[in-house]
Structure formats: C-alpha cells, structure tokens
Specification:
It comes from Deinococcus metallilatus. This is GNAT superfamily acetyltransferase. With about 160 residues, the chain is α+β, with helices and mostly antiparallel strands. The protein has a single domain (about 5-160), classed as 3-Layer(aba) Sandwich (Aminopeptidase), CATH 3.40.630. Helix content is about 30%, strand content about 25%. It has four helices and seven strands, in the order βααβββαβαββ. It has a seven-stranded mixed β-sheet, with helices on both faces.
Length: about 160
Amino acid sequence: MSAPLTLRDLHGPQELTGAEDLQLRVWGGSERDVFPRDALRALEHIGGLVAGAVTGGEVVGLVVGLPTADARVQHSHLLAVHPDWRGGGLARRLKLYQRDWCLARGISRVEWTYDPLRAVNAHFNIHRLGATADTYLDDFYGEMGGLTRVWPPTAWSPCGT
C-alpha cells in the first residue's frame, strides 16, 4: 500500500528543501528560478502560506502565498505539482487548501498572476477555479528560465485576478 497523501503546512529544513526540489523538478531551469528554502522559512515565520501535499516524506505539491499590504488579501505566488501527480485534481485541492487557510485567518481575497498564453494554465485559473482577470501586466516577471520560458520573452504576459 502506498503512503497516504496529506495536505498541510510545511515546516522544517527537510520539507522546505523538498519544496525547493519539487520546484526544480516541475520548472527545470536553475536554482535562480525557484523560491528558495530560506525564503520559504522566513515567509512561514512571518505568517505567509507555505503548504504542500506530502506522501511518504516527499513533497509532491506546493502552494505559496505572500502577505500583502492589505491584511484581507493574499498574493498567491506559486503552485507546483509533481509530474507524476498531475491530472488527478491535486492542483485544485492545493488551491482549496489555500482558500480554507486564508478564510481561517480573515483573508477574503487571493490574487495571483498567470500567463494567459499558456492555455492549460489559463483554463485552470479561469474555468476550474472560477477566477476573474481584471488587470493585464505586460512582461511582469521579465524573461524566465526553465518550463516558464516563453519565446519570444516579451510574450510573457500575466494577468492579475
């Protein structure tokens, strides 16, 4: 029997290193392209969301949310799902975990960026999660490496929700 999958806040160096490893596995690129373990630890300490899906001691899903200047709003910085766990609804479960986590803390709005040129990502955000896009931010992150690399680089065009 395989180990159960648990969605929960991540803690400690081993789990946060697992969160780094997952990002590298999902997006490729270099260590420059991931949210590093020490920053995840600091974020966790100041009240941000660092949560994941864990099975058998391995982090197979990750959602990270940053506090904003408005205590009622969180910025969802990233969502990652291990390639072996895609297609089974884990990404949506992680976003629902984030929703419940936020509501328990009086956070009533979650905002994030996504690339509307990536059909799967846009479909997930708009149709599966029911998000709305009200802002277009041209070249928000600049050129990115790994899986998020888009050619030409100027085509990277996230929208706020």
